[in-house]
Specification:
Largest sheet: 8 strands, mixed
Number of helices: 17
CATH architecture of the largest domain: 2-Layer Sandwich
Strand content: 15-25%
Oligomer: single chain
CATH topology of the largest domain: Alpha-Beta Plaits
Number of domains: 4
């Protein structure tokens, strides 16, 4: 409103002065036409003075109005260039304003890059069109002088200015009117504003240079702010990207990670920690550990205090707390000081490993190893289990407790199982000591073989040594157990080809040996007396020079047409 009033006032004064000037000029013309002697010469002189004064007043009013408009423009420019923090927008506003203020044909803004070199950032012409900076015919001599000296420069005709005599760029590009001012922030030149006119000489004045310098001071700050804002945006984008990456990494870590400040208040909790503790991070972050997870707090509190007090980590701890949401959990956990970039402790990082499933698997394996030979376990690949087998030569051993049925009738079930386990354990240990594979326990009997799954060239001798060890083990048990619990094994050994592999279904598999030699070994064992070891003829032929054995009556085995020649093993030579 005030601006429009000032403009209207100026127009009114200018109009009145123009009218007054016209009247005075008409009076002067009339007097000069008549040149009457009756009119004193002072009248003529006074009218001439009035004409000069009227023209001068009008010129001064015009000059005052131009200055007022420039000052007003500067005030508005200060608002405009600071109205945006977008660097490209600010640069465009600056350049368009410069051209409007100076009447330049074109203007170019150069800023120092990261290397401290001046680099063109934006060029605009009087039609507010962007210029091709790669094809800008400008005076680098003037630009670098202003950048180095930090002082503005004005030339009304560069072609005739002695300061630039012989400068190729000025001559080649026919440069004439040039304005160039530095952009300064805290006394440092951060860039240069260059404006010129290649057609008209004397276009720019000292007043325009002064206005441009005043504007450049505002523009430099606005550009610096926009540059800083752009830098902050880039940094924020990088930090955000890094944070997202760290969040993803933090989320993906399989170990439970929980951080707490020095007041034991939870700051971070990853997905693995949520699963271990049975709580989501929203329930924990910002809360004291003692409030959000009392079970965890009671487990780690003494170690947490120790870490904060000594500033040293506590590693490799194990505990089995019971959480209300998860039940008992076997944990391996460590605590370490949480430090900032200055290495000041800001809290504690707690790393947790849930060992519950691992320990269950280990317990299952230990149980499995008691049921199946470790050699068999090592040969099994869970990812490639399939039904079927392969043919191999093996030595089979069957050991059965004699008179066990009558013994079981006179004792309690608990004692029966206890005694049975001691005899079967002794037999199993003897087999495993020789590297044999225990196939199964059949009530009060043990079935084992040698030479599979790991090849054993001396498998027959191994079976014989195992049988003798079983007999020796039972004698030692007789020394420890009461006479009522004295039991003895009848043992049968045979050698031959069998098919070894997995039988059953995908839900229930059994690794076993199938073949006639297995059946024959079982029949030989069935015909052995308590404490007696019988072996087939083929075995005897292979080890005759290494054992002491005697031939016994051939046995008529069930399912066999011809009697089977067997030998009783007495000992080793």
């Amino acid at each position: 409103m005030l601006s429009s009033q000032n403009t209207s006032t100026y127009a009114s004064i200018d109009q009145q002065l123009a009218h007054l000037t016209g009247i005075v000029e008409q009076m002067q013309f009339a007097l000069n036409q008549s040149r009457s002697a009756a009119i004193p010469s002072k009248i003529y002189e006074g009218v001439e003075q009035l004409v000069i004064i009227a023209a001068r007043l009008r010129q001064q009013v015009t000059s005052f109005e131009e200055e007022r408009q420039s000052l007003r423009a500067l005030a508005q420019i200060g608002q405009v260039v600071n109205s945006s923090l977008d660097l490209d927008v600010v640069l465009q506003i600056v350049m368009d304003t410069i051209i409007r203020l100076t009447g330049a044909e074109r203007g170019i803004l150069l800023l120092r890059n990261e290397k401290g070199e001046l680099s063109p950032r934006l060029g605009r012409n009087w039609e507010q069109e962007s210029l091709d900076l790669s094809d800008s015919a400008i005076s680098h001599t003037i630009i670098y002088r202003v950048a180095n000296d930090g002082q503005p420069l004005l030339t009304t005709n560069a072609q005739e200015d002695p300061r630039f005599t012989g400068q190729e760029s000025i001559v080649a590009h026919n440069l004439r009117s040039i304005l160039c001012v530095p952009l300064k922030v805290k006394g440092q030149v951060t860039g240069v504003i260059y404006a010129d006119n290649r057609i008209r000489s004397g276009l720019f004045t000292q007043k325009q240079l002064d206005i441009l310098v005043a504007f450049a001071n505002q523009a430099a700050v606005a550009i610096e702010n926009a540059s800083l804002f752009a830098s902050v945006k880039r940094t924020l984008a990088e930090v955000t990207e890094l944070k997202n990456l760290m969040d993803n990494v933090f989320y993906s870590i399989t170990s439970g990670v929980l951080t707490a400040d020095t007041s034991e208040r939870v700051m971070l909790c990853n997905r693995a920690a949520e699963l271990i503790l049975g709580q989501n991070s929203g329930e924990m972050v910002g809360q004291a550990i003692s409030e959000s997870s009392p079970e965890l707090s009671s487990m780690i509190k003494p170690y947490l205090e120790k870490v904060l007090k000594t500033d040293q980590p506590v590693l490799g701890l194990e505990a089995s707390p019971t959480f209300s949401q998860k039940g008992q959990v076997d944990l391996l956990f460590s605590l370490s000081p949480l430090k900032d970039v200055q290495q000041h402790t800001q809290g504690v990082a707690i790393v947790m490993e849930d060992l519950t499933e691992k320990k269950q698997l280990e317990a299952s394996r230990r149980l499995f190893e008691k049921m199946v030979s470790p050699g068999v376990i090592d040969q099994l690949d869970p990812d490639s289990l399939k039904l079927g087998g392969r043919k191999s030569e093996i030595t089979i051993l069957f050991a059965d407790i004699r008179n066990f049925t009558s013994f079981s009738e006179g004792v309690s079930p608990e004692k029966l199982v206890s005694v049975l386990n001691r005899y079967l354990a002794a037999a199993a240990d003897a087999v495993l000591q020789e590297g044999g594979t225990i196939d199964k326990f059949l009530g009060d009997a043990v079935m084992a073989w040698f030479n599979a799954p790991v090849p054993q060239p001396d498998h027959t001798l191994r079976a014989i040594r195992a049988a003798l060890a079983i007999r020796l083990a039972q004698e030692k048990l007789h020394e420890e157990l009461p006479i009522s619990s004295h039991l003895s094994f009848g043992i049968g050994i045979n050698v031959g080809d069998a098919v070894l592999g997995l039988v059953g279904t995908q839900k229930r598999l059994d690794y076993t040996a199938i073949g006639d030699c297995v059946n024959t070994s079982k029949r030989i064992q069935e015909n052995s007396a308590a404490g007696q070891i019988l072996m087939g003829e083929e075995i005897y032929k292979r080890v005759a020079d290494k054992v002491v054995a005697v031939a016994v009556e051939p046995i008529q085995a069930k399912g066999k047409r011809d009697p089977i020649q067997v030998y009783e093993l007495v000992g080793m030579r």
